[in-house]
């Protein structure tokens, strides 16, 4: 009985924190309305945001009332996972409501758009040419909220040093500072600083201010939502492409690595193994793609190199912006893109995918094992990699965990591809589209559209959530909720 009471107390704490996040979502829903003084003709759409905002704030406040105040409770990793899972599901539901209430999308389509935004994927079923400025800004704001870490943003100020479990559940494995709250606040400063700089640079490059705001938010969030159906390619501007590439690199880089740059430790920054691997991957993929595919497609080497640099950077950083379509790309180039999307961005960043750090460790482990066969048996080796905090000695268990994650990732990827194959799409298109989905990339060969079968949309929704939240967090949080509900609801045996 004592354990059940303690469990109930912990869930009061969890529900209270989730309530705080829901209040935050409710307030965020009102931000697009700041555009009304500029776009007055869109005043009729106010109710689509005010209604879900009020519902979220009232519900969140009610959930906050459940929490026991005055207690300093440290969140475990499993409890942090439960909060993150509940918060993301709640955020997706409330974020989808403006699309549903306005009649722009049905429930499945609206959930797809909301999850795509919050997970910073960027796949879309919205026709941006017929969408109001308020809704376009809301799409970008969803990527801002999801990119920096939904739970981390909302709770960093109130949890303080007691929220380490939540911090790790959000995928933030490297702390910038010893205190979690200070770390998350610094992440927000870096995040907003890059977005502001991006807006200024885009405007100077000739992009309209509204487009600049949306594209800068999405680029740093590695989200990829655009205000144009042709994405960045609509501007046909080399300066805009270069600015976007820089912002995409910033978005996919570990926030702890950014902290080194802010301190002026540039040399240490470029010593990080994950950073070196990222540039090596692009240095190999770009010339191969240009030589074997794009040179004959575009004729001029300059055009091929320009396209390859942008598209492969967008794929590796899991941003999803594009300057060209892929309908005329050959199988070799598509294969390179699929591989790059599966690898994904940096750990502890806004990006998705397997993560460059994990792939780097698996490759290093392969090299270490080969060297181990060649060295004398009595030689003691300490294998390490360089991370933002310094040398990190890789234990066999750490390498095994990474391999297990990679296997789980690829099994999920195969399952998603099978769903698309079952609906009649080609193997190449299915592999590309689901690599983009699971890696939260957002690039498309044209499959993702409003008329996509509901089962495929829900398979993509599941893939985007798993790809953003990390598989183990979702699985363990789900199992914990089910187990705890059984314990709490279990009836006491009657005494005869």
TrEMBL record:
Location(s) in or outside the cell: Cell membrane
Origin superkingdom: Bacteria
GO cellular component labels: plasma membrane
Major place of residence: membrane
Pfam families given in the database record: TrkH (PF02386)
TM helices/strands, residue ranges: 12-34, 46-63, 75-101, 144-167, 188-210, 242-262, 274-294, 332-354, 405-425, 457-482
GO biological process, one term: metal ion transport
Alphabetically ordered keywords of this record: Cell membrane, Ion transport, Membrane, Transmembrane, Transmembrane helix, Transport
Protein name per Swiss-Prot or TrEMBL: Cation transporter
């Amino acid at each position: 009985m004592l354990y059940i009471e303690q469990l109930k107390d912990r869930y009061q704490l969890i529900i209270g924190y989730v309530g705080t996040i829901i209040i935050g979502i409710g307030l965020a829903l009102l931000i697009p309305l700041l555009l009304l003084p500029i776009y007055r003709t869109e005043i009729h759409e106010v109710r689509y945001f005010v209604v879900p905002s009020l519902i979220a704030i009232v519900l969140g406040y009610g959930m906050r009332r459940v929490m026991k105040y005055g207690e300093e409770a440290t969140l475990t990793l499993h409890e942090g996972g439960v909060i993150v899972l509940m918060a993301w599901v709640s955020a997706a539901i409330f974020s989808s409501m403006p699309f549903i209430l306005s009649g722009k999308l049905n429930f499945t389509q609206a959930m797809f758009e909301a999850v795509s935004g919050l997970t910073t994927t960027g796949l879309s079923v919205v026709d941006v040419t017929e969408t109001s400025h308020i809704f376009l800004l809301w799409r970008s704001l969803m990527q801002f909220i999801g990119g920096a870490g939904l739970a981390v943003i909302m709770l960093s100020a109130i949890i303080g040093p007691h929220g380490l479990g939540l911090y790790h559940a959000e995928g933030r494995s490297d702390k910038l500072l010893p205190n979690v709250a200070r770390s998350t606040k610094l992440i927000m400063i870096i995040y907003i600083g890059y977005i502001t700089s991006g807006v200024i640079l885009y405007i100077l490059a000739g992009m309209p201010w509204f487009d600049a705001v949306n594209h800068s938010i999405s680029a740093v969030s590695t989200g990829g939502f655009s205000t144009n159906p042709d994405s960045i390619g609509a501007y046909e501007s080399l300066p805009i492409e270069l600015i976007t590439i820089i912002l995409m690199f910033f978005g996919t880089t570990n926030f702890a690595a950014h902290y080194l740059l802010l301190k002026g430790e540039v040399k240490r920054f470029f010593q990080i193994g994950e950073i070196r691997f990222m540039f090596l991957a692009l240095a190999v993929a770009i010339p191969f793609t240009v030589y074997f595919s794009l040179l004959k497609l575009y004729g001029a080497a300059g055009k091929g190199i320009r396209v390859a640099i942008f598209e492969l950077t967008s794929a590796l950083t899991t941003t999803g912006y594009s300057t060209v379509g892929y309908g005329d790309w050959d199988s070799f180039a598509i294969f390179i893109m699929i591989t790059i999307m599966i690898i994904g961005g940096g750990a502890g960043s806004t990006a998705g995918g397997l993560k460059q750090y994990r792939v780097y460790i698996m490759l290093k482990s392969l090299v270490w094992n080969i060297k181990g066969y060649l060295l004398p048996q009595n030689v003691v080796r300490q294998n390490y990699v360089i991370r933002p905090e310094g040398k990190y000695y890789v234990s066999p268990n750490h390498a095994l965990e990474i391999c297990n994650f990679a296997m789980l990732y690829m099994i999920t990827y195969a399952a998603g591809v099978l769903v698309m194959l079952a609906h009649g799409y080609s193997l190449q298109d299915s592999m590309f589209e689901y690599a983009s989905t699971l890696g939260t990339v957002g690039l498309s060969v044209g499959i993702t559209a409003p008329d996509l079968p509901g089962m495929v949309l829900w398979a993509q929704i599941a893939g985007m959530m798993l790809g953003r939240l990390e598989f183990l967090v979702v699985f363990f949080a789900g199992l914990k909720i089910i187990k705890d509900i059984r314990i709490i609801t279990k009836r006491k045996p009657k005494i005869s």
